[in-house]
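hey m, so remember when u said the tokens were messed up on ur end? i reran from scratch. heres the input so u can diff it against urs
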Amino acid sequence: MGDTSTVSASGGSSGVFRHGKRAGNSILGLWSRYSYVVIFIAILITFVAVSKNLTWSGVMLILRQSAVIGIIGFGMALVILVGDIDLSVGSGLVLISGLTVMAYNITGNVFITLLASLALGVTAGLFNGLLVGIAKMPPFIVTLATMLIFRSLALYISHSRLYELNSALPSFSAFHYGFGNSPLLTVPIVGLMFLLVAALITYMCTSTKFGKKIYALGSNARAARLAGINTEWLKVCLFAICGILVGFASFINVAMNRSVSPANTGISFEMYAIAGIVLGGISMSGGKGHTAGIIFGTMSFTMVSRIIDAFELSTEINNTVKGVILLLAIALQMIRKPSKE
């Protein structure tokens, strides 16, 4: 009788332990998949608290200010998902933006200007991709080099002067005020472009064979090669897509701001894009994360900047605060469901 009681008690305790462990694993699993939502809500609550008079137009302003970094972030995320990195996106933005201004001032045609932006972007992306994917050079070194090259070229071509749209052209108002700074049903047009890019990239990553190849390569490069994936050309394609998105972001940047400073535009944008990606739940080790989270991550990072402004902190300390928040986000991202042995 005593033995039976002991076994029963032991079994009951073990069952409770297993149930608790399953519940804990379930919570960790949800956290690892959707931590970016929790982080976004926490930052949003803080933003609402310090803003005091938050309005719909204030929220739409956050979306508008997130557009350029967010679009670049989606390109960067594709590269990071396969375990690489592109440090040249900020310098690429200033070079392509400057040449976009020149294309517009020469042609006066917005559609040709857009094509020029995309063509310049894919050219820059292919240059990086061929060196990384085909020549097998380290992506960190390659894109560090092109980061220096692109900004230097932007300075050289402009002779360190400001690139500025010609406001005398007939299409100027439609381009700068209409596309770059006008809303559609209260939502900024550039914000809608950001959301459109988000939808297309998320669909590509979640619902196509190409997207499955990206995650396969990021998770296990050797297994991806054994499965017949041409990993070299896949990397070339991803750097090219990243370049196209930098080109599109450059077009939007010009439409929003009408001028480009080769010395200051795009400074630290590669870091800001990475911050939005990390806050959005993309793993820097590759192969993990939902691209839709980049919307939340980029807007979170934009709100952090606005919160810092609201506290009237010294401008010299801004990046310190952003860096600390980025480190916290990475630490939280590392809390994941234990893998099965």
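this time it looks ok to me. The domain at 35-333 is CATH 1.10.3470 (ABC transporter involved in vitamin B12 uptake, BtuC). if urs says something different then somethings off w ur setup not the seq
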